[in-house]
Design a protein that fits this description.
This protein is of the alpha+beta class. Helix content is about 15%, strand content about 45%. The protein contains 4 helices and 17 strands. It has a 17-stranded mixed β-sheet that branches. The protein starts with a strand and ends with a strand.
């Protein structure tokens, strides 16, 4: 069987995109999904995303990590899917779509910047050496001094698989403050089990965590990720973060077919 696919990336976070509105993709075949995401034996990607019909919105997002398992929300994946939906003429420049964590609103500018509304955040666990919150996916946020030379893979895996988060684990973000409204981060993603060039829900978590812990008073924060730059903005009402938006580029890379 020939499978037609598209490849997108958002600040280096890359995804295999499949138009599954005909519902022909074998969604339960985790080995196939993992093989398609494999960088040596497949197409290569941090995850695979299905574009599906949804009775109440413009489309539905179904996201799989590169290990083949369906996962929680992916911010950069959501932004790339919006760009893909526009390419497929499912939407124009604005959309509402359904994902595993609920409804999302998004828009695409003429220069390819996708702005994606994320979920509201209320529960933030603040400890002396880290912050934990859920921005559609669970995220551990920790400030480190020498971010450039920090061993993200080993240290991230130790926390992800450690006693702190149990069997489910968490994504792990290491952060360095650049100025009052700019932070650099590197992320270890569960399901990929390695550092990725960017993580949208991670960037969102870092921005909110830095505000919640007093590292910044800004409500629009620039995030330097390994694959480029993202912006997270929000409104703060007491301890609740609302109107949370993740903004950045989402780019088509190539399309093709592969035998499955």
């Amino acid at each position: 069987m020939q499978l037609h696919f598209y490849k997108y990336q958002g600040t280096g976070n890359d995804f295999v995109m499949i138009d599954n509105r005909s519902e022909t993709f074998p969604k339960e075949d985790t080995q196939l999904i993992a093989r398609l995401c494999d960088r040596r034996f497949g197409i290569g990607a941090d995850g695979l995303i299905l574009l599906e019909n949804d009775p109440e919105t413009d489309f539905k997002m179904v996201y799989y990590n590169s290990d083949g398992n369906q996962s929680s929300m992916c911010g950069n994946g959501g932004r790339c899917l919006v760009a893909f939906a526009k390419q497929m003429e499912v939407i124009d420049n604005t959309t509402t779509f359904n994902a595993i964590d609920g409804l999302h609103h998004a828009s695409v500018s003429d220069d390819g910047i996708v702005s994606l509304q994320m979920i509201d955040v209320v529960n933030i666990k603040k400890e002396s050496d880290y912050t934990f919150l859920n921005t559609g996916s669970p995220h551990h946020v920790q400030i480190v001094e020498d971010l450039e030379r920090f061993n993200v893979k080993d240290n991230g895996a130790a926390i992800r698989y450690g006693a702190l988060y149990g069997k489910e684990g968490s994504n792990i973000n290491f952060v360095k403050k650049i100025d009052d409204a700019t932070f650099s981060l590197r992320t270890y993603e569960r399901g990929v089990e390695d550092e990725t060039l960017a993580c949208g829900t991670g960037a969102t978590a870092v921005a909110i965590a830095m505000n919640a812990t007093g590292e910044t008073n800004a409500t629009s924060i620039d995030l330097n990720v390994e694959g480029g730059k993202l912006v997270v903005s929000f409104d703060k009402e007491g301890d609740q973060y609302t109107n949370v938006y993740l903004k950045g580029p989402a780019k088509f890379v190539f399309e093709g077919t592969i035998e499955i």
